[in-house]
């Protein structure tokens, strides 16, 4: 569980918080195996015996004062009695995780019999769009063959297709059998037949270890539906024109209900992989894609505002069915046409899944992404709770979860991998703030209760009853992290403790929310105004603005680069880069609305260092493929020219580019050899990613270098025109300086 705060020394009160101009909060990556310093938790059992505060329900931790018969809560100060079993256990503190570490992970007992505990076979269902092309189906087959290799023995796999009908495959016999259920074309009608009546669920779900070859054989039979099939099944429009045939919404709703009948019996979590090649245009949940087009200019409608909200609540509603059915949905959209991911995204973000977007089948990393996603550990049926000491409180929470309808600051996460990150911001609970001389510093406690499926090979035989050997086992666990923070006695101490990457994380969450509610223009304005206010507050705090006759004079130059505070120095560049990012660029600049939604979903779950990379890519140089020259350059042509290095490596999180300058020695090997230092660094970067980055090699002067030059943003205008000029980052700073002067008048 990695936790990083915007400031490691908290502001003393609300006046200090406002004067700083900084967001106050933290990010948490709950299922990360280690903390932010690389240290793992203390493991143990009997999590249900961990004492809890009678007042605030916080868990006992190493910061609590312990007497022989009682303990004092480190969050609220309440004195709690110790039960007799705890007194006996705590008499030997060295063997107790919660006595030795503030980061613990304890096993919880499961309700039910041993037999119920073993009903944990992981279930995976692929739902494939047949209203598509041969190339799309070939890519999907490759991805699913990769997925089959990553699935553990004992898993169950179901294959379904959708078009103007839903196809269910039974691969447990000698030859694959498909049963079809036709989808009514209108947006209101439900299926005439439940899927369970067409094929029993346990016929549909095949054991991977015995049916892998038959599943592969069934995949080979998939073909796009013909125009004749579509015209016979789909609705006819004017002059016989085809009006639809991709019944995605009806298919998803039916599959969730189908799986829900066995939730808690056959499986504890099911994952649905939905492969789609265009917008749903048939049956329930069909979308109107005509809202994306040239009509905005003529109607004076702000496209950046109109295209971000969902156009129907249908997918949000069936995401609720997925959650209730124990289903996590991963959506793989392989399309360059408008698909309205603003509506479809709820299937994945509400259910703990991922949303992937690939603009073409040619260079898609879909098979690698599937394998990578299934090869990493994940937790499910998770509950995340953040508690604070009494002086402050969580104000907002951000991330892909759904809040508990009854309890405040309690979030449910259906599926959580080791990369998924969530954010919180804080506010003071009252006007008093923290005491300057108190012995009780601010405390944050994060509790993460989760379930994992342990495959047979991960267990000792002694851990299982004899009847359950060879089966998966469910484990319910409780992970707790308790952190004490210092308080800053003045604003300089706040600024000196800033983590600029976490500040960026909270800013990204806030501008995404504002963009969704009020449009991209408002998101950009919020970001610009925030930097102006922060710069003004910093100049005020360091007395860089002179006072004459009681009035502030702009005679001394405003420090817009935060030269007195290294921790704040990166922020203007990060804000500039965020304004240049497709997340906040305008529709008329050619930013596809689906790509913007994809970035919103991706950036909302990245931990701070990865997000930094996605917003302001890292650029390093090499003198040879085996020798690094400089670890970091600014993203400008000037930096390339002045460095004199022949090879550059750019890491933009989703894309990796190796660029050889046009003046590079022709004897340098291109592309770099597999055993060189540069390749080792590339492979290390790829291994640490939640997605598979696209790798490109470009030779300056010979290859088209546009892909690389696009990332050299510091000489591009902030309004997004993108033409190289001397008016990029420098002119942005001048604009901020003028705005600060105006603000401070």
UniProtKB/TrEMBL annotation:
Keyword flag Oxidoreductase: no
Domain Sec23/Sec24 trunk: 121-373
Positions of the Zinc finger Sec23/Sec24-type domain: 51-84
SUPFAM superfamilies, A to Z: beta-sandwich domain of Sec23/24 (SSF81995), Helical domain of Sec23/24 (SSF81811), vWA-like (SSF53300), Zn-finger domain of Sec23/24 (SSF82919)
GO-annotated biological processes: protein transport
Record has Transport as a keyword: yes
Keywords, ordered alphabetically: Protein transport, Transport
Domain Sec23/Sec24 helical: 499-611
PANTHER family: PROTEIN TRANSPORT PROTEIN SEC24, SEC24-RELATED PROTEIN
Family membership noted in the UniProt record: Belongs to the SEC23/SEC24 family. SEC24 subfamily.
Protein known as: Sec23/sec24 transport family protein
Lineage summary: Eukaryota, Viridiplantae, Streptophyta, Embryophyta, Tracheophyta
């Amino acid at each position: 569980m990695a936790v990083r705060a915007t400031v490691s020394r908290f502001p003393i009160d609300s006046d200090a918080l406002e004067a700083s101009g900084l967001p106050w909060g933290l990010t948490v990556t709950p299922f990360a195996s280690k903390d932010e310093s690389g240290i793992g938790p203390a493991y143990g059992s009997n999590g249900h015996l961990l004492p809890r505060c009678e007042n605030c329900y916080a868990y006992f931790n190493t910061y609590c004062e312990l007497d022989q018969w009682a303990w004092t809560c480190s969050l609220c100060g309440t004195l709690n009695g110790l039960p007799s079993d705890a007194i006996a256990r705590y008499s030997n503190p060295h063997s107790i995780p919660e006595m030795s570490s503030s980061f613990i992970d304890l096993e919880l007992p499961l309700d039910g019999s041993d037999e119920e505990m073993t009903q944990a076979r992981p279930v995976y269902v692929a739902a494939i769009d047949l209203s598509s092309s041969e190339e799309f189906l070939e890519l999907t087959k490759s991805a699913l063959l990769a997925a089959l290799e990553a699935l553990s023995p004992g898993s169950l796999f179901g294959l379904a297709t959708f078009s103007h009908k839903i196809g269910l495959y039974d691969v447990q016999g000698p030859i694959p059998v498909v049963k079809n259920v036709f989808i009514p074309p209108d947006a209101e009608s439900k299926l005439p037949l439940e899927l369970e009546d067409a094929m029993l669920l346990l016929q549909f779900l095949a054991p991977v270890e015995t049916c892998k070859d038959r599943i592969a054989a069934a995949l080979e039979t998939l073909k796009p539906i013909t125009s004749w099939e579509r015209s016979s099944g789909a609705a006819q429009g004017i002059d016989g024109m085809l009006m639809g045939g991709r019944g995605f919404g009806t298919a998803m709703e039916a599959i969730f209900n189908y799986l829900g009948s066995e939730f808690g019996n056959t499986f504890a979590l099911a994952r649905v992989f939905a492969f789609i090649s265009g917008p749903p245009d048939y049956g329930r949940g069909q979308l109107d894609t005509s809202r994306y087009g040239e009509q905005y200019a003529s109607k004076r409608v702000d496209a950046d505002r109109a295209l971000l909200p969902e156009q129907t609540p249908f997918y949000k509603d069936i995401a609720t069915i997925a959650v209730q059915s124990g289903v996590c949905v991963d959506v793989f959209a392989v399309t360059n046409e408008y698909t309205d991911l603003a509506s479809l995204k709820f299937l994945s973000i509400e259910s703990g899944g991922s949303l992937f977007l690939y603009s073409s089948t040619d260079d898609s990393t879909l098979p690698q992404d599937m394998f990578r996603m299934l090869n990493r550990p994940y937790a499910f049926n998770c509950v995340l709770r953040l508690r604070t000491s009494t002086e402050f409180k969580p104000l907002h929470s951000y991330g892909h979860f759904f809040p508990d309808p009854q309890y405040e600051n309690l979030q449910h996460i259906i599926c959580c991998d080791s990369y998924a990150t969530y954010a919180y911001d804080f506010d003071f609970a009252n006007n008093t703030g923290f005491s300057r001389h108190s012995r009780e510093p601010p405390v944050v406690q994060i509790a993460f209760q989760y379930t994992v499926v342990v495959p047979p090979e991960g267990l000792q035989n002694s851990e299982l009853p004899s009847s359950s050997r060879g089966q998966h086992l469910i484990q319910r666990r409780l992970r707790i992290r308790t952190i004490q923070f210092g308080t800053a006695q003045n604003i300089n101490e706040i600024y000196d403790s800033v983590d600029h990457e976490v500040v960026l994380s909270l800013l990204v969450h806030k501008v995404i929310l504002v963009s969704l509610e009020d449009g991209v223009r408002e998101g950009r304005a919020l970001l610009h105004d925030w930097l102006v206010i922060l710069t003004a507050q910093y100049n005020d705090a360091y007395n860089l603005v002179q006072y004459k006759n009681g009035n502030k004079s702009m005679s001394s130059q405003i420090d817009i680069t935060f030269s007195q505070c290294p921790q704040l120095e990166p922020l203007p560049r990060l804000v500039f880069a965020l304004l240049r990012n497709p997340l906040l660029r305008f529709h008329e600049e050619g930013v596809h609305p689906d790509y913007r939604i994809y970035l919103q979903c991706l950036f909302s779950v990245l931990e701070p260092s990865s997000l930094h990379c996605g917003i302001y890519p890292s650029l390093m140089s090499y003198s040879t493929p085996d020798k690094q020259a400089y670890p970091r350059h600014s993203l400008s042509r000037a930096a390339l020219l002045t460095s004199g290095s022949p090879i550059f490596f750019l890491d933009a999180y989703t894309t990796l580019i190796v660029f050889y300058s046009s003046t590079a020695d022709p004897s340098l090997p291109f592309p770099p050899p597999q055993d060189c230092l540069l390749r080792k660094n590339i492979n290390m970067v790829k291994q640490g990613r939640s997605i598979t980055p696209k790798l490109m090699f470009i030779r300056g002067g010979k290859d088209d270098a546009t892909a690389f030059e696009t990332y050299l943003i510091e000489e591009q205008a902030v309004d997004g025109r993108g033409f190289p000029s001397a008016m990029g980052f420098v002119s942005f700073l001048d604009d901020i300086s003028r705005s600060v002067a105006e603000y401070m008048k």
